């Protein structure tokens, strides 16, 4: 990807497809499943990849290419490929790069479906995963085996909002010559660029802050060109392509990523400050609160603290549920990174199938509430939370 020297706010707006003969200012949607060739030779050369051009939208499409190019510029990555969902990006990345009997080392706190992929599906191909907990860095090296191919993390983690040290983990991966893959969904490239800390690949669920308005699903993997080539070939042949319409939405969304994320973070810090010290609350976790156990690491690798706040209401499961039932403005929903503030109670929903002991292992006590702070006026969000807390 050529370096224009522009800031990422500018890249997110000015990275555009070539204009058509209509000279449109804002890019159109290319809803077409295939593309036509000039003649037999053009068709042959295109399939032989002697020229870069669109053939069929399962392979590439102008809208998906524009979206991918923007993410690459924002993440400082060489190349990328877009997918229908964040999970198809995660799955395709592993499926393309791993062979049977390979091994993964991962932080235990990963997105629920990623955890299911590691424990339920990849073992079908004899791909096993060893886990370390967020505060067990010294364990990481001891988990690396001769067949380990990938070190995998998310930071901030979901839903406990712990921070992992990307620089430290990147150095371990380099030392052992294994791939370092980071799910950067909670931070977005505006707050954190894992490639700067040695990540070989960076994955996003574009469904979250990248869309930012709760409309479409999407995913993307960016990083080293040789790895992306394998991932592209896997995707081209197996079909988890991002739809051109969703790519158009996501590319448009990136134009406002910086201003949205700034405001999300400002609101989230306001809410974290309100919750800290509240009588009905045991503790609050937000990366840019001084009380966060990994505050220094967060400051080192993130521009701002992100839009998700975790806290523990006093009184466990029962009060967690009561609190949710008393919420009026904020939404009870499974998504995050929306303009609308979303409140969830992981112990009774996304992580209800885990035993209480397993939940503690992943840092999800029964009273834990996760707020994905939106873009409403911060006072209105605080009033809603305040009233709900008074009712428990
Ligand atoms: C939501 C999410 C995913 C999965 O993304 P989908 O678009 O829902 O498939 C992966 N990782 C993290 C951290 C997420 O929050």
Under the CATH scheme, which architecture of the largest domain would be assigned?
A: 3-Layer(aba) Sandwich
The main pleated sheet reads as: 7 strands, mixed
Mean pLDDT: 95
Strand content: 5-15%
H/E element string?
HHHEHEHEHEHEHEEHHHEHEHEEHEH
Question: Rg, please?
Answer: 21 Å
Task: Name every ligand kind in the structure.
Answer: pyridoxal-5'-phosphate
Number of strands: 12
CATH topology of the largest domain: Aspartate Aminotransferase, domain 2
Query: Percent range for helical residues?
Result: 25-40%
Explain the overall architecture:
This protein is an alpha/beta fold and 392 residues long. It is built from 15 helices and twelve strands. The strands form two sheets. Strands 1-7-6-5-4-2-3 form a seven-stranded mixed beta sheet, with helices on both faces. Strands 8-9-12-11-10 form a five-stranded mixed beta sheet. The longest helix has 19 residues. The radius of gyration is 21 Å and the shape is globular. Pyridoxal-5'-phosphate (PLP) binds next to α4.
Question: What secondary-structure arrangement, pairings included, does this model have?
Answer:
Blueprint: H1 8-14, H2 40-47, H3 62-75, E1 79-83, H4 86-97, E2 103-107, H5 112-121, E3 128-132, H6 137-143, E4 148-154, H7 166-175, E5 179-183, H8 188-191, E6 201-205, E7 219-223, H9 225-238, H10 244-254, H11 257-275, E8 281-285, H12 295-301, E9 308-313, H13 316-326, E10 331-332, E11 342-344, H14 356-361, E12 368-372, H15 378-390
Parallel strand pairs: 2-3, 2-4, 4-5, 5-6, 10-11
Antiparallel strand pairs: 1-7, 6-7, 8-9, 9-12, 11-12
Bound molecules: pyridoxal-5'-phosphate.
Pyridoxal-5'-phosphate (PLP) is lined by residues 85-87, 111, 154, 158, 183, 185-186, 205, 207-208, 217, 219.
């Amino acid at each position: 990807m050529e370096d224009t020297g522009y800031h990422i706010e500018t890249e997110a707006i000015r990275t555009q497809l070539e204009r058509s003969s209509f000279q449109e200012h804002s890019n159109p949607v290319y809803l077409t499943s295939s593309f036509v060739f000039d003649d037999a030779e053009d068709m042959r050369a295109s399939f032989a990849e002697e020229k870069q051009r669109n053939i069929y939208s399962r392979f590439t499409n102008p809208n998906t290419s524009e979206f991918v190019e923007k993410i690459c510029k924002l993440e400082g990555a060489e190349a990328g490929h877009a997918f229908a969902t964040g999970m198809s990006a995660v799955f395709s990345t592993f499926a393309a790069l791993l062979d049977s009997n390979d091994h993964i080392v991962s932080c235990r706190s990963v997105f629920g479906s990623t955890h299911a992929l590691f424990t339920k599906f990849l073992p079908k191909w004899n791909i096993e995963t060893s886990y370390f907990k967020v505060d067990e860095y010294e364990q990481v090296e001891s988990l690396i085996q001769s067949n380990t191919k990938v070190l995998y993390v998310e930071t901030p983690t979901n839903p406990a909002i712990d921070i992992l040290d990307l620089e430290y983990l990147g150095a371990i991966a380099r030392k052992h010559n294994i791939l370092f893959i980071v799910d950067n969904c909670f931070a977005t490239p505006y707050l954190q660029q894992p490639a700067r800390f040695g990540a070989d690949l960076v994955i996003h669920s574009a469904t979250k802050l990248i869309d930012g308005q709760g409309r479409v699903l999407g995913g993307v993997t960016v990083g080293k060109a040789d790895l992306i080539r394998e991932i592209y070939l896997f995707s081209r042949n197996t079909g988890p392509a991002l739809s051109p319409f969703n790519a158009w939405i996501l590319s448009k969304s990136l134009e406002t990523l910086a201003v949205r994320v700034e405001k999300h973070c400002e609101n989230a810090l306001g809410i974290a400050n309100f919750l800290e010290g509240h009588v009905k609350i045991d503790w609050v976790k937000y990366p840019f609160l001084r009380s966060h156990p990994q505050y220094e690491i967060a400051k080192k690798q993130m521009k701002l603290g992100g839009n998700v706040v975790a806290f523990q209401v006093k009184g466990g499961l029962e009060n967690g549920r009561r609190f949710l039932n008393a919420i009026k403005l904020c939404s009870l929903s499974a998504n995050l990174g929306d303009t609308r503030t979303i409140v969830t109670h992981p112990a009774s929903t996304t992580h209800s199938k885990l035993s209480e002991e397993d939940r503690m292992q992943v840092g999800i006590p029964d009273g834990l509430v996760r707020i994905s702070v939106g873009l409403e006026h911060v006072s209105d969000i605080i009033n809603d939370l305040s009233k709900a807390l008074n009712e428990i």
